[in-house]
Design brief:
mainly beta; two-stranded antiparallel sheet; 4-stranded mixed sheet; 4 helices
Length: 286
Amino acid sequence: ISFEITVTVDKCMEERSFTISPLGIKDKLTVTISTNCECQCNDPVGSYHSHCKDRGSVKCGICRCNESYVGQFCDCDIGNKDEHSLRASCQRQNGTDCEGRGDCVCGRCQCHTTEQGNFYYGDYCECDDEHCEKFLNKLCGGKGDCNCGKCKCHKGYEGTACQCPVSEEGCRTANNTVCYGRGSCICNLCECKEGYQLPHCQYCLGCPEPCQIKLSCIECLGFDSGPLKKNCNTVCSKSISFVLVEKFSLHTKECQQKDSQGCWIKFKLEQLVGKDNYKAEILNKR
């Protein structure tokens, strides 16, 4: 949480302190302020002082930069940019300079050190190698390296916290594939592509009915007609292998659809390994 607080002094006073304590937050901040009503500095004369990189004058020990220069020592040349747009280049999404983990210097983030003495890094100081998922109270389960908040597992381990030995036994299907080619095996369990069902991504309950979406391909493959006749090999041959039959042998749902000529086509589809890979049997009469 980031707070911006402005304190304005309208008269000279002795040193005073006050405490900032937001409701619901345990942290407290004590601020001590004092006023320096008379400047005791003996400022050097001139608008180009070496203390300010010859780009500004010294006012009571602080650089007052000439036009188009900013920074503690006027070391940043902003050209025709303004200071606001320069700071914007240090902000990612939440509008905080360098994610609150660094200082914006001349439009680039200079990152602070972490609690353990390492450095934050990244264009916005968004990364560190100390805050990854733990397993058995060990960072990345002791089987990987923390890299910008994500575990990079050592060889032979996987999972978000490197908690699993690499294995595909639990993902093997009856035809000796992994998740039927429609998912990934993570921690010995299938993670299916959208719509496909656990445990092995064999069936898709939310997918369009293949009888309807494959009708045009079935018509051009089996009977050389229909809207895909001219480019049937390009569009259909890679996703469907077919045979013309007098009697079905596949034990899947029978499709009966009207083709482009108003004739009834009967066929069966069996989904093979992969997302768009089918075997088809087409009755040779329509």
